[in-house]
Amino acid sequence: MSNDLWKTEILKAIDESYDGTGGVYLDSGTNTLEELQSLTGNQASIVLPGAGNSVANQVKHLLTTVAIHKPQFEGGEYPDLDWGADWEATPLSDDEWQALVTTFAATREQLKNWVQNPVVAEDSAYAGAAIMVVAHLAYHIGQIRHGIGYAKQA
């Protein structure tokens, strides 16, 4: 498979994760970012039954996931991150929540830039990291979408 082909497919998956473009793994017209923006801080902070975490926790975890993979795409040292902090149930104000969503939205362009303009050598480890990040993103987008449905009814 050519680099251009796998990059094109990874970029499509990234876009779909955020705005639903494509309809391959999310229902067509599903816009995760818009739905996240529609939540209040209180709704985003609701601990979901059976999950033990909230939509906000899922978003925080995705931000940590992007941060931990930065060296695979840009080079440099791995950051010392506290994965456990992602899962601490802390209530967020509306402003805190919207700031978190804005930060999450920015990761879309960061991920796309990493795929389009690699700083490190393109090899199987680089491609594998891109695929892993998208797979992880897809899983947690599913968790987020499930949580949004619950939070809006709570």
Written account of the structure:
This protein is an all-alpha fold and 154 residues long. It has one domain: Four Helix Bundle (Hemerythrin (Met), subunit A) (Up-down Bundle). Helix 1 runs antiparallel to helix 5. It is globular. The termini are far apart. The relative contact order is 0.20. The mean pLDDT is 89.
Query: End-to-end distance, in Å?
Result: 47 Å
- Class by alpha and beta content: mainly alpha
Mean pLDDT, as a whole number?
Answer: 89
Largest sheet: none
Rg from C-alpha positions?
16 Å
CATH-assigned fold name: Four Helix Bundle (Hemerythrin (Met), subunit A)
- Total number of distinct structural domains: 1
DSSP strand count: 0
Summarize the structure.
The protein has helices spanning 3-19, 32-38, 41-45, 55-74, 94-116, 124-153. The chain is an all-alpha fold and 154 residues long. Helix 1 (3-19) runs parallel beside helix 6, helix 4 (55-74) runs parallel beside helix 5 (94-116) and helix 4 (55-74) packs antiparallel against helix 6.
